[in-house]
Amino acid sequence: MDFRIFTDSASDLTPDLINELDVSVLELKTTLTKPDGTVLDGFSLDYPDFYNALRAKCTAVTAAYSVGEVIEAVEPLLSAGIDVLFLAFSSGLSASCNSAKIAAEDLSQKYPDRKFLVLDTLCASLGEGLLVYHTVKYARAGHSIDETYAYAERTRFNLCHWFTVDDLFHLKRGGRVSGATALLGTMLNIRPVLHVDDEGHLINMEKAKGRKNSMRALLEHMKGSAILPEDQTVFICQGDCREDAEELAGWVKESLGVKRVVIGYTGRVIGSHSGPGTLALFFLGNKR
User: Fold this and answer.
1) 3-29+64-156 with 158-284: one CATH topology?
2) In the 8-state DSSP scheme, what is residue 106?
3) In what order do the strands lie in the sheet with 29-33?
4) In this structure, how many other beta carbons lie within 10 angstroms of the beta carbon of residue 96?
5) Which residue of 34, 166, 178, 278 could cross-link 38, Cys pair, CB 3.0 to 4.6 Å?
6) How far apart are the C-alpha atoms of 282 and 258, rounded to whole Å?
7) How high is the pLDDT of residue 189?
8) What is the pLDDT of residue 267?
9) What Rg do the C-alpha atoms of the chain give, in angstroms?
10) Do 133 and 155 meet the contact criterion of CB atoms below 8 Å apart?
């Protein structure tokens, strides 16, 4: 590759995947406030402690990276003669992509002979990470930055995201479900099944009775739309519910012949809004 691929921490790529793909990752911010008013940097906590803080009713606030932070990260590469492709967190969920686009406009004027391309992935969490994964593989096959951008641009609409959560409190706080829905759902053991649509928004699609049924719903959606699943690498992310993720991975392998499933944490940015017990399945399908 004669260019560098950037993404951001909303992609939830594991350290092993970041090393495997050799990509640069720009961090969004997460701040936790304890009930007693103590403020913590979310990235100062490891994942189990972060999710335990959410269980203890800490309030989480996330923030996009700034234009200046993008410029600071990318300009050294452009000044060294290296082009950059930035795969950004969905504009339907964050202002991060807009910051990257403004930075690209500024830097393109300063370095007119270099390319700094920003793609709104319309993806989130390891869905964004899976798009980065496939884009890097495509680029390593010898494709140019323009060809790679075009590949990622068309492939993003085949990147399927299916989520469920174990606690409706966090979706209620973020406005994804109403207070009445959250209360009734908790009382009746109802679990929502959500996905990310073609505009990059998180959409509540259906309801399932109980955790196992919501997990099976993720599998059924994959069965209905996956493209050649036996040839795919599938990503699963989990909000401190590793056993559920392992069980879902086993179902995916047994039912669809998938050979490689990568399990990672639902990161601090997404996890702040979806809460502990978040479980998500990501794969390539004929439609989102």
Assistant:
1) no
2) H
3) 39-41, 29-33, 59-63
4) 26
5) 34
6) 12
7) 81
8) 96
9) 19
10) no
> Beta strand 83-88 with 3-8: parallel, antiparallel or unpaired?
parallel
E strand or H helix at 255, and its extent?
helix 242-256
Tokens of 288: 């989102």
Residues of the chain with confidence (pLDDT) below 50:
none
pLDDT at 166: 86
Integer Cα distance of 184 and 262 in angstroms: 34
Q: Whose CA is closest to 94, among 71, 61, 116, 69?
A: 61
Residue 172: per-residue pLDDT: 66
* pTM score above 0.85: yes
Q: HEC profile for 171-218?
A: HHHCCCCCHHHHHHHHHHCEEEEEEECCCCCEEEEEEEECHHHHHHHH
Contact 231, 202 (CB under 8 A): no
Residues 162, 195 contacting (CB under 8 angstroms): yes
Q: Give residue 128's pLDDT.
A: 98
CATH top-level class for 3-29+64-156?
Answer: alpha beta
From CA 258, how far away is CA 249, in angstroms rounded? 9
pLDDT score, position 168: 72
146 token code pair: 């323009």
- How is domain 158-284 classified at the CATH fold level? Hypothetical Protein Tm841; Chain: A;domain 3 (3.30.1180)
* Alpha-carbon span 188 to 186, nearest angstrom: 6
Residue 1 has a pLDDT of: 78
The tokens describing 8, both together, are 């951001």
Give the whole-angstrom CA distance, residue 2 versus residue 144.
8
| Residue ranges of domains in the chain | 3-29+64-156, 158-284
Look up residue 147 and give its two tokens.
């060809």
d(CA 72, CA 24): 13
Q: Taking the CA atoms of 181, 10, 52 and 37 in sequence, report the sign of the dihedral they define.
A: negative
Residues 6 or more apart in contact with residue 68 via CB below 8 angstroms: 103
